[in-house]
Here is the input.
Amino acid sequence: MTPRPTGEALVALALTTARAAAAAVRASRPEGRVEVAATKSSPTDPVTEIDRATEQLIREHIAAERPDDAFLGEEGGESHGGSGATGVRWVVDPIDGTVNFVYGLPQSAVAIAAEVDGEVEAAVVVDITTGHEYTAVRGAGAYLRESPAREAVRLRAVAPSSAAQALVATGFNYVPEVRARQAAAVARMLLEVRDIRRMGSAALDLCALAAGRFDAYVEQGLAPWDIAAGGLVAREAGVLLTGLDGPPDGRLVVAAPEAFAEEFLRLVRACGF
Here is the structure.
């Protein structure tokens, strides 16, 4: 039976795996636009062969060390592991920000989280373009390492003085009906905040919030692999993640520094998200 791991062991395995995956993505990306292999939720929601190959690399890398763990990936779905019950499930987005990746825009990441008994225990997000590494272990803080030569820096989210001063990150669903509702809500919010950014990678948005580069985040239609890793990084930096009436889910993800979370959630409700 595969031994029950510590958070530190899980984050170490996630980090070596994410580094290898990000390097493989950089090496395999051709010049120009990447060919789309298929679509998911709508004709504008793409999948590439590099997405699929990267997820397979991640699965194999983790299984070599922990063959009995369960696995949930964006491209390959869920597997329940081997015969030894470990209570560990890996939640993986091989390329978060696929549209950016297809167009060659510098905002995509490998996101790997490890759940233990249903709770995210360890997380790694590696920015494919810059190589920046965000890591977190539950109860032990969140960190950013910008290069191997630099020390990791502990992250702490920064609350704005008010909603009017807040720089808010968001994203748009690929289902037209959902997107139309989001667009209307964002238009209302734009009148109440400093400004809005749509960068195209939920994992990196949550990490940027953890690093104080955004003041809040709201998005609808996210899947578990979109928020598992970035969500733990954000929480460990002092961010509150919630949904409309409970935990964050596909209906809505709202994230803000703890001191600003209540005010921001009121604004989100008022804008009709």
